[in-house]
Specification:
The longest helix has 28 residues. The protein is mainly alpha-helical. It has one domain. The relative contact order is 0.16. 83% of the residues lie in helices and 0% in strands. It holds the Pfam family DUF423. Keywords: Membrane, Signal, Transmembrane, Transmembrane helix.
Length: 121
C-alpha cells in the first residue's frame, strides 16, 4: 500500500534525523533541546514501523492505525522541528508548535489504543 510505504520512508528519515540530532546534542554546547528532539524522532520512527507492521497483520483497524502513524509523523516533526529551530535560529517554528506536536503524538498513541480495540481480527 502506498500510504504504508510513505510512512515507512518518513520513519526512515525521522530515524536518520534523530541520530544526527543526537550527535549534535552530544557535541554541541547547551544543546539539551536537541537531545529531546532526537528522542522524539527516534521513538516515534520506531512506533511508525511497529504500527505499519501491526496494520499489515490486521491487528490494528486500518484507517485508525494510519491516522495514528500519521499523527506520529506530524507530531514528532512539529516537536523536533520547533526545538531544533529554537536551538539553531533562536526562534520558534510558530507559537505553541512543540506543545501542539506533543499533543498530536499523545493523540496518536490514543489512536493506536482505539485501533487495537476496534480491529476486526
Amino acid at each position: 500500500m502506498v500510504a504504508h510505504r510513505l510512512l515507512i520512508g518518513l520513519a526512515g528519515l525521522m530515524g536518520a534525523a534523530g541520530v544526527a540530532l543526537a550527535a549534535a546534542s552530544a557535541h554541541g554546547a547547551d544543546a539539551s533541546r536537541l537531545a529531546s528532539a532526537s528522542a522524539m524522532l527516534l521513538f516515534h520512527a520506531t512506533a511508525i514501523l511497529a504500527a505499519i507492521g501491526l496494520l499489515a497483520r490486521g491487528l490494528l483497524h486500518g484507517g485508525i492505525g494510519l491516522v495514528a502513524a500519521a499523527g506520529f509523523v506530524i507530531g514528532a516533526a512539529l516537536f523536533a522541528g520547533d526545538l531544533t529551530l529554537r536551538q539553531y535560529a533562536g526562534h520558534a517554528l510558530f507559537p505553541m508548535a512543540a506543545p501542539t506536536g506533543g499533543t498530536v503524538m499523545i493523540l496518536g498513541w490514543l489512536a493506536v489504543t482505539l485501533a487495537a480495540v476496534v480491529a476486526r481480527k
